[in-house]
Amino acid sequence: MTDFNHKHEKVLSGLGFLQDAASRSSQLTSGMVNILTSFEERLARLEKTILPVYHETKNLQQKQENIDKTLASLDHVIGYYSVSKEVEPVIKESPSSQGLDVFLHSLGRLQEAMHFFEKNNPQSVELENVMSLFETGKDNIISEFKEHLAKHSHIVPPITVLEALATDEEEINVNHFSADIKDNLMRIADWLITHNEDDFMNVYARFRANTVQKTLIGLRDHLRSSSVGAVSHQGVSPIAPMSGTSTLLAKSGVKSSYDTPSRKTSKKLQQMLERKANQMLLKASQTLESSTGLALGSRRSAADIIKEDAVEEQEIESFFTEFTALLRLLQSELRLMLGIIPLPHQKAVLSIILRDALEMICHDAESLSARARRSVARLEFGPVLLLFPALRHLVCLKGDCDKLLEGCDSSVRTRFYAMVNNLHTTCGKALEDFAESVRSESAAPLPRDGTVYEMTSNVVLFLGQLTDLSDTVGPLLAQDQSYSNALVHTQPWPKPQRNRALLGLYIKKVLVQLNLTLVTKSDAYSDSSLRYIFRLNNSHYLLGALQRSGLLDLLKVVEPECESIYREMINEQKRLYSQSWNKVLAPIWNSEDVPASVLLSGRLREKDKALIKEKFSTLNKEFEELSREQRGYSVPDVELRESLKRDNKEYILPKYQAFYDKYSNAQFSKHSEKYIKYSPAQISSVIDTFFDVAA
């Protein structure tokens, strides 16, 4: 019980402590509330006092900002009114005097002033002043553009062009503009484009067109002056190539190692010129004298070939060089205009640049074609042969030309392709005209000695020039449906082989016409032996010439048996020629003969003696006549000449030997030497004199 009371007292004591604590807390809370209430009342009174001051201060700040903005705007506007006066000294001078940066900045200030006055005061005098000064500045910057082009568009020297061509690069890398000038041109062009001024592109095109054309004219004059010097020293035929590298070096203005050069020519140029010397346009220097012993007559003098329609090698070579130079120059022009001319307008500008230069090249090509056509009309085919390398050159460069002309003006493209088509037409027609001239040839007289006909050698020379041109001649012939149809019936041809096959067909056509003409012409010989000698000479010469020139290989593409056909013709003509001995052998072959028994008995009747005398007399007469005639025949080929003599001996001597042995010891006359004039050895010696006028 005592413990309970003790705990009860402790609880009551704690409760009393808590009540006292609660009472004190309540008093503290009441005091704090009173303090806070008093603070709140004081804050309310402070807010009521300060807030009006705050609002007034904010209004004052806003007004200050408005005043500052107004002052700044006034300063800006006032600045527009003074722009003209400030930039006039810069604008009235050329951009180069003050610097392009300063000039363009001044133009920018004028443009801003223009926009301000147009918007705010379009009727003001200030607008007129600013606009007038802006136009002056624009004119000056355009003049600066022109001045840069005029001052720095240099003509490329001919030697530089030739050296660049010798490198086989796609363009002529000439630094027309320095980096600073190119940068100025680009910035001026950019400013003009931004301000919708695009006439500068026409200005650029005219200056560059003039430079390109003058470069080509300078190159042409250089090539012509070099060619005149070379020709005057050598007297070269218009269809014969220049001999030796030194001549071509002289033609190109490059001194040989034996000269003292004014400038050092690059090794690549030397190599290029040597290649050109080794790959001349024609192979006519391989003369017939060296291969057959033929004398083709006197060569034309220089005075004979200088005439209105003459086409010279130098002209063709100059055409090659000028056209290639134009192509490379235009590729350089495309690179040069980057950054100056906007990409969408570059091909239009290039059209203007190349138009006059291309017209010059086309005029030259048309002149060459026209003169070649007039020569063909006179049946002179030498000049037109020079056009084939020109056409091949254009065809080889056609891919580059197509790429370059893509996007150019249609009139420019049409002009170029018309030039190529003109050469195509001229060369194609010349081929057919030549074949027709072979068929209808009637002017040249027959050689009296039966040697190779002039037309035969001319045909071989003409066809020989085509052997390396199958890639050019093939497409020309393909335009004639008859050639294409002839190939369709044989086998499928890949393109390179197809061109060789087409050329082979043409060669076959010409040779067939030639053979027919030779047979027809030979019928005019009254002497049948001479007729067959003439045919034999021509057939043998043709076979040898076809083999030497490579024409036979082309012919075999479409006529594999052509060589055996010619050999059969030669053998047949030899056989026919051998019939010329029939008159000589007639007494030997005569069925009326002295019996062998009578000859052995030695008792010849008068009739027998007379028969033997008649045989020898007739044989002597015919042999002497035949010998006289055949010494006047000409067989220029040594191998053929000796083979004919050998064949004659093999054909005659055995028969004559038997006849001689049979009758030479017979007592048919007291003066038998009057009748037995020739022993077999003497017959052989006389045959050795055949085909030799001097004998």
Describe this structure in words.
With 695 residues, the protein is an all-alpha fold. It is 75% helix and 0% strand. It contains 29 helices and no strands. About 11% of the residues have low confidence.
Throw out a few tags for this protein.
695 residues; mainly alpha; 75% helix; elongated
Ordered list of secondary-structure elements with their pairings:
Elements (H helix, E strand, L loop, with lengths): L1 H91 L2 H4 L1 H21 L4 H28 L5 H9 L12 H16 L4 H36 L10 H7 L15 H12 L9 H5 L9 H4 L7 H24 L9 H32 L4 H4 L1 H10 L1 H8 L4 H30 L14 H11 L5 H9 L2 H8 L6 H28 L5 H22 L1 H8 L3 H17 L3 H8 L6 H6 L4 H26 L6 H26 L16 H9 L7
Helix pairs in contact: 1-3, 1-4, 3-4, 4-6, 4-7, 5-9, 7-8, 7-12, 7-13, 8-9, 12-13, 12-15, 13-17, 15-17, 17-21, 18-21, 18-22, 19-21, 20-21, 21-22, 21-23, 22-24, 25-27, 28-29
Family: Belongs to the EXO70 family.
Keywords: Exocytosis, Protein transport, Transport
Protein name: Exocyst complex component 7
Short summary of the structure?
The protein has helices spanning 2-92, 95-98, 100-120, 125-152, 158-166, 179-194, 199-234, 245-251, 267-278, 288-292, 302-305, 313-336, 346-377, 382-385, 387-396, 398-405, 410-439, 454-464, 470-478, 481-488, 495-522, 528-549, 551-558, 562-578, 582-589, 596-601, 606-631, 638-663, 680-688. It has 695 residues and is an all-alpha fold.
SSE order in H/E notation?
Answer: HHHHHHHHHHHHHHHHHHHHHHHHHHHHH
Report mean pLDDT, rounded to a whole number.
81
Low-confidence stretches: 229-306
| Strand percent estimate | under 5%
Largest sheet: none
Overall structural class, as computed from helix and strand content, comes to mainly alpha
Number of distinct helices: 29
Write down the overall geometry.
elongated
Task: Determine Rg (CA atoms, Å).
Answer: 53 Å
